[in-house]
Amino acid sequence: MREFNEEMISFIDASPTPFHAVEWMARTLECRGFTRLAEDEKWELEEGQDYYVTRNDSSIIAFSYPPCSEKGYTIVGAHTDSPHLRLKPSPLTTVSGVKRLGVEPYGGVLLNPWFDRDLSLAGRIVYLDGEVRKETLINIDRPIAVIPSLAIHLDREANSSRTINAQSDIVPIIATGDVEFESFILSQIQDDTGELTLLAHELSFYEHQKGSFVGVESEFITSARLDNLLSCYVGLQALLETSYPMMCAFMDHEEVGSESHVGAGGTFVEETLRRIAGNDFEKLMRRSLMVSCDNAHAQHPNFPGKHESEHAPLLNQGVAIKINSNQRYATSSRTQGRFVQCARALHIPTQTFVTRSDTACGSTIGPITATRLGIETIDVGVPTLAMHSIRELAGISDAFGLYRILIHLGDY
């Protein structure tokens, strides 16, 4: 379990953006014998082979072939994106003698923890090398920015009633001297030495501090992007170790609604499954199971009243099965029963998560893919504290337990 979690943290550290996460997973799959497919080419799938395909380099689907004739695929769904601060197209400004880079919040980001952190920058850029358009990933991988707090002397209400203006208060500072943004970004390209011109970018700030174990017995994991790269890692490792036909579908843009050509609301998963199944698509969907893996809200010890008392998952007490009668989660009694039966056979505890009846319930890719594919689905997740913060907290045993269940779920 310790080794599993250490490798998971290494993956998250190496994946500051969805582009980097997909690149890491693609390399891992190829090292394990998976063949890359291209969406714009004809597929000739061979029995007993493993494949993967990407879209936009930020979503990835990997699968063994063929699916089981009786039970189809166990499909592990997760998302590659996390709430963060995205660089604006023309970000550079000068205020009070410092250079700043303007940002836009991506998703439901918790803004307070972004103050006074060592921030780095990573993502994808598109540029001209002479007359040739190219694109590449960059990761500066050192602290280049900070968002300083306003001193308590200048805001006496900071500890009781402070609000944050996303336009004016959360702007990273990067320098006091002259900085030319395009030149600085292009200087990160290693391979090209000709005349370069920046055309576009998708760059994100992230906390440079690495993930780690904390607690008296090192029983917690603290890291950025646990939601939801933790689930991506768990699903990928289960795919690599299971003996049953499995698919992983890790999608971008979940944190902003999934309505994009690379999101769960798009065509990527459906088109991939149709190409695999041919005329048997409907049969495959009736026999398969989607396991939507997305972190669950653990009961916060300082705010226990925020939870439904009988359905408040605890850290290191098992995977949470997420249930909502209004279909914000796609779990049914049938899919829950199958998942719990497998967990009990492995002596792995599970918990249930239901939001308070007077609290709004979030959602996942589960209901989206269930609607689009007509596939039976269960929503599960590792209990997590500080979700959508710059650093989140989970227990060391829960991700490993989910991994073990997914390996054997095809038995049930």
TrEMBL record:
Its cofactor is Zn(2+). The keyword Endoplasmic reticulum does not apply. One of its GO terms (biological process) is proteolysis. The keyword Cell inner membrane does not apply. It holds the Pfam family Peptidase_M18. InterPro entries: Peptidase_M18 (IPR001948), Peptidase_M18_dom2 (IPR023358). Its EC number is 3.4.11.-. It comes from the Bacteria. GO terms for molecular function: aminopeptidase activity; metallopeptidase activity; zinc ion binding. Keywords: Aminopeptidase, Hydrolase, Metal-binding, Metalloprotease, Protease, Zinc. It is an enzyme of class 3 (hydrolase). GO terms for cellular component: cytoplasm. Belongs to the peptidase M18 family. This is M18 family aminopeptidase. It comes from Sulfuricurvum kujiense (strain ATCC BAA-921 / DSM 16994 / JCM 11577 / YK-1).
